[in-house]
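WARN no homologs supplied; continuing
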Amino acid sequence: MGESIQIQIAAILGLSALAQWIGWRLKIPSILILLATGFLIGPVFNLIDVELLFGDLLKPLVSASVAILLFEGGLTLRLKELKHDGWVIFRLVTIGVFVTFALATYFLVELLDFDLKTAALFGALLALTGPTVIVPVLRTVRPKGSVKFIAKWEGIVNDPIAVLLAVFIFELFILNPSGDSFWTHLLLGILKTLLVAGVCSWAGARLMVYLVRHRMLPEFLHNLLIL
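OK structure emitted
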């Protein structure tokens, strides 16, 4: 049993590396090859069942991986890039997200006969781009000028906004809370999230700066401590 698990994990790592190499050789976004590979070894040929392989660890692993990707992507952002394109980026992650959400919901209802609740939830998910999609595309296309920075910012900032929209739709339609209790629950959830994230981020950043400035941390531990 142990050897089987090791082989499957090694196969996942090896195939993911191979898929990215194929994408690089064919000069297409590697996310396309990765998605196709995942479907083939999973639902299509049923060679690896990740739910059986990882069990209760699957969702925490996925959540942690997405968090690390977003965190790593955030470290590549530079505020000076907002000097000329900040307004464009702001409109993309606000108006752009809601226009995509509205159009996707409309077409899901009209063309695919989805009920409104399911269509709205899918529409919110379709409004999400994220660094897992945008970064491989940028690596392949390599646009010049401000387009590169705009796409990078949109991909990273769009992710939490679209996810929060999906959570909002889920709680509004699927959980079906009543009246004032829903809005109270929603606002308290947003405020607590912002408060906890803001305090923890500020405290962690201040601690990191202090340790580095006073040479209390070796360089090879910087990345690990930040993570």
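The mean pLDDT is 84.
OK
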